[in-house]
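Technical annex, item 7. During the second reporting period the consortium partners agreed on a shared format for inverse folding records so that results from different sites could be compared directly. Each record opens with the tokenized structure and is followed by the designed sequence. A conforming record, contributed by the partner at site C, is shown below for reference.
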């Protein structure tokens, strides 16, 4: 299919300069996609000819500007022709970057990934989290290993990436690095973001993920039962670290707050209304506001650790990794034969504390701070006691609606005769 290519100049009336001139802008359009750029030229708005995209008149100024616009157009056309010959499929951004003198042909994948991570790190605490940064850094290391494993070099130019690159990396993650399917799925989503960012900056013309399906597996999410929660409550911690980790975990089980949200709790998040205590906070992951009324146990835990300062954190927890190690030691000492993480507390809240006690899915979703109820449905497992209770209730209703005592007694007596004959 033949590419449609066009260069258009126009004036930006909404951004006048101090001398009354307006900037002259350029637009590159290829197959319906376009990008704008500044020509570094300006003109009086009344002198601009919209129909011919040039300056009207025969003055020296008009002639000079029109000649410069012609040279810009020729340079862009040369860049377009060269890129079309070298790459085939190209984008307006690629042409613009080539016009600006950027040698994107030599832009390297791993180097680009590392610069992204450095920029990402600058936004930690503002709009980015450390856990997401660690994920990107991990994927970057795996990508570097993959390029060395398959191509025999430490880095690779974007122009050398082909259709085999994405499935090859996915296979490398699952087989060579022995990662589970869902871990590979998370890594591939991170790579997709990086390649999409590279395309938006003109380093790639083709979407390598087009037609490549990414799918996660449904896995069992561990949670604690009421009996196990009572064991944990009765457990006597050996030291201060064990105690604060155990208490914070129980607090999470009974409120649904995640590790990072509990770490951020201060006195400002605690509300007292009509002899009831509430936690009001914003989820770090989704930005959703949550309002949770405390039961007796989490309120007692809060009273134990409460501070009066709005700047001091209520729970001074160690790192999430250290908490998980400590939790598994606590489970073993408490006689609970389950491998858990701090996130198990949210599964426990969604399953044992709320869903099994008859809470509506919409309520659970709101308490967990989910922006999509489908996420809540993944957490909420229907437990055996809840299933037995629901079926018992349903059985009584059906038996009442569909009961014929005479017919049932006939069937019962017939069954006895059959048994006697046997």
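Designed sequence (site C submission):
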């Amino acid at each position: 299919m033949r590419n449609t290519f066009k260069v258009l100049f126009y004036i930006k009336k909404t951004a006048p300069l101090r001398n009354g001139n307006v900037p002259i802008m350029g637009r590159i359009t290829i197959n319906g996609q376009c990008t704008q750029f500044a020509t570094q030229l300006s003109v009086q708005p009344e002198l601009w000819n919209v129909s011919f995209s040039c300056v009207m008149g025969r003055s020296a100024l008009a002639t000079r500007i029109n000649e410069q616009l012609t040279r810009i157009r020729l340079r862009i056309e040369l860049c377009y022709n060269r890129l079309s010959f070298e790459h085939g499929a190209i984008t307006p951004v690629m042409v613009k970057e080539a016009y600006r003198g950027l040698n994107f042909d030599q832009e390297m994948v791993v180097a680009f990934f590392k610069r992204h991570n450095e920029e990402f790190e600058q936004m930690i605490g503002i709009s980015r989290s450390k856990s997401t940064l660690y994920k990107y850094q991990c994927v970057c290391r795996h990508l570097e290993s993959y390029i060395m494993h398959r191509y025999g070099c430490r880095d690779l130019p974007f122009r050398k990436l082909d259709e085999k690159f994405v499935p090859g990396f996915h296979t490398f993650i699952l087989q060579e690095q022995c990662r589970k399917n869902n871990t590979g799925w998370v890594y591939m989503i991170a790579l997709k973001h990086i390649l999409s960012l590279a395309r938006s900056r003109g380093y790639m013309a083709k979407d390598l993920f087009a037609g490549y399906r990414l799918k996660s597996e449904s896995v069992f999410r561990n949670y604690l039962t009421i009996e196990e929660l009572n064991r944990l409550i009765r457990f006597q911690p050996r030291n201060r670290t064990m105690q604060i980790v155990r208490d914070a975990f129980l607090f999470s089980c009974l409120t649904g707050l995640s590790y990072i949200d509990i770490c951020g709790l201060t006195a400002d998040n605690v509300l007292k209304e009509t002899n009831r205590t509430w936690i009001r906070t914003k989820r770090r992951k989704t930005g959703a506001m949550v309002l949770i009324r405390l039961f007796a146990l989490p309120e007692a835990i809060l009273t134990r650790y409460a501070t009066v300062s709005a700047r001091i954190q209520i729970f001074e927890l160690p790192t999430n990794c250290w908490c998980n190690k400590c939790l598994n030691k606590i489970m073993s000492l408490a006689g609970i034969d389950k491998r858990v993480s701090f996130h198990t507390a949210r599964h426990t809240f969604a399953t044992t504390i709320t869903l099994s006690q008859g809470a509506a899915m919409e309520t659970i979703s709101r308490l967990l701070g989910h922006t999509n109820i489908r996420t809540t449905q993944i957490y909420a497992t229907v437990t055996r006691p809840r299933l037995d209770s629901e079926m018992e209730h349903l059985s009584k209703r059906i038996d009442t609606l569909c009961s014929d005592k005479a017919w049932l007694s006939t069937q019962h007596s017939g069954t006895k005769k059959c048994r006697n004959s046997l």
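The first strand starts at residue 5 and ends at 11. Residues 365 and 372 are 8 Å apart (CA to CA). All partners now use this format for quarterly exchanges.
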